[in-house]
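[step 3/7] fold_predict: job queued, chain A
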Amino acid sequence: MKGSSTQESLTFARGVREGFPICVGYFPTAMAFGLVCRDVGLKIWEAVLFSVTNFAGSGQFLAINLLASGALLLEIFIGVLLINLRYLFMGAALSQKLEEGIHGPKRLIIAHGTTDEVFSVAVLHNQKLSWPYMVGLQGVSYAGWVGGTALGFLIGMVLSPELQMAVGVTLYAMFISLFAQELRQKGIMVLMVAGFSAIMNSILILGLSMGSGWAFVISMLSASVFGAIIIKEPEALP
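[step 4/7] structure written:
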């Protein structure tokens, strides 16, 4: 972002303008989520409520996969909590950039609307973030996600059963895209962590006959510890 643009007033209109590309990017993924929700037997209001209350793509796809596999609610809760834990740190960092006077319910709304993409756009600004700007930025992104979920579910009502079954691959595409991003940044170490997680999951399910939900949670925790041990962040240059 050019230096001159950072001095432009952070208005609601600017937030909408900067959030629109995020909305466009979210829409097809949200449609895929709506299709998957219908495929596993949810009603449209349940699918929409899912997106309204969560607004977290990877966490929602994970939850719907665990739900389809028959996992317990506690297993789903822990899995989604772990995969969305990064938003706690994003929210804490973003709160330091908010204008004075943004308190209470407004901060809760901003916390709920914080995603990876929204955070990346918001932190580019050198000036304090205003309430109208955040409403515009997060509101248009949120509308794209929730609206895409509803439209995807409705489109699923006219698709053939074969096409509805094919939609299931969107779940794997979602996580492959996340994996590819990490692979480009950290290389072979990410493959080692992924392999460790896969082996651990296989041992728990095939060797110990553990349910897929708890196996996933334990594998995720174990892989997180393993990754923290072997992946070292590069030291900052003096």
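[step 5/7] annotate
Confidence is low (pLDDT under 50) at residues 1-6.
Residues 200 and 219 are 6 Å apart (CA to CA).
exit 0
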